[in-house]
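The methods section describes the discrete structure representation at length, but only in general terms. The central task, working out the structure tokens from the amino acid sequence alone, is never made concrete. Nothing conveys this as quickly as seeing an actual entry. For illustration, here is how one protein appears when written out as sequence plus structure tokens:
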Amino acid sequence: MSAKSVISKEVFIPHDEKMLAAVQVKRRTKKKIPFLATGGQGDYMTFICLSVTNKKPAHVSVTKVKQFQGSSAFVKRSQWTLDQLRQVNGIDANKDCPEFDLMFDNAFDQWVAGSSGEKCTFIQILHHTCQRYSSARKPDFVNCQSKLLGGNSILHSAADSVTSAVQKASQALNERGERLGRAEERTADMMNSAEQFAVTAQKLAMKHKC
């Protein structure tokens, strides 16, 4: 099971939340932390996660999740509501890059994702989620490639794939219905023929009796 799957299972599902996206990150500028919650200094992995509550009205959160060295557990370290998100900075609007910044009401973090692809996927889903769930004041997306904010995004591609699959399934059902219809027609023709044969045979039998 991947780390993201474990985070979804252990951190969000128990709180009746659905994890929409997660990206593993490292700080571009390291903060000096003399003492960690594990009882001393140590390495750790950091994930920025996007989640939504299953209960209505839905509440969306951006959560910083960490896994400390020597521990298999993932723990929440910081969490913000979507309305607290002020700006998403993609750093370079002209090319793919793994760096991005997140600015909240009370925090500002500069991150580098594990890959440009991971960062792009996260920002696409984050933008889509903001458009769907944010209140009147939506966060600004700056220095982001246009493909991340619309156009040929993976979200539209996924939607197209689903639509295509539905259309193919509908076509298959229609074809199956047509085949069943033809089979029913043939069955009806055979029944009519059988009835006509039975009537003819009965007439012949009556004629021979006479």
Summary: The two ends are 86 Å apart (CA to CA). The chain has four helices and eight strands. The beta strands are 17-27, 44-53, 60-68, 75-81, 85-89, 99-104, 108-113, 140-142.
